Each structure stands twice: as structure tokens, then as C-alpha cells.
Hints:
globular; 1 helix; Methylamine Dehydrogenase, Chain H
Amino acid sequence: MFTHPTLGRARSAQKQSVGTVHVHPSGKFVYVANRAGGTVEYEGQKVFSGGENTIAVFAIDQNTGEPTLIQNSDTRGIHVRCFCIDPGGRMLVAANMTCMPMRDGNNLRIVPAGLAVFRIGHDGRLEFVSKYEIETGSENIWWMGMASPEASLR
């Protein structure tokens, strides 16, 4: 049994949690969601308190099973609720569940909920492709998934 940190940067005082874990179809990589979604008060408004919303990528030693952290890929949103890998192992989509204001220097900017799409390289690393913003109003994205095109024909 192995225990390894999932965060890509030094620990902060912000609340962090891990979420969904998925194994690549090849069995050579494991992906873990790092979640942050806490708030602090700023100018009378609740804003994102900071933290890491990434997908941690681990390479798995095929002889020992030991994971080695090789990447933390920013999902460009807040609170990575869930993510999935396409059945062919070429694409990963992460759902950031909530829309929230975030400090940007002395200004505030809105970080929308949405889906972050990544290509999965042969080395297991993620390459950001696009983010699709989703208007959620006061609701959250609780689940998302993918199916192969063949599955829809059954």
C-alpha cells in the first residue's frame, strides 16, 4: 500500500479535499481530483478562498504498483466535482461544479461552472483543450459522464 500527496504545490491553509479517482484504461496511470471551494468575506461578498482545483496524474510502476505524481493540471474552475475518461483513454473531461467570485488583485472576477476538456498523451499527461462554461444559476453540477458512441446505438 502506498500513500502519496496529490497536491502540486505546497500545502496552504485553505481547505482541500480529494475527489473522484479513475484508472486509465491501460492501467498505467491514475487520475485524482483535487478540490477546493471554500469562501472568505471580501468587501461584503463571499469569494473563493483559494486552493487547488486540479487533476493529479500518477504514473503507475507496472512492477510494484507504486504511483508517482507526474502532473497537476489546472481545471480552470472551482471545486472539481467529478471527471471521466473516454473509453479509448484519449480524453478526460472534468466538471467544476459551481460559479463563484474570485479575487483578481483588487478586483473580482466570476469563475463560471463548466467542463474542462483535456487530451491524454501517451505518457498519461493532460493537455488542456477547452473549457465549456455552463450557466448553473444557484445550482451546482453534481454529476457528468461520457459514453462511447456505440453505447448510444444499443
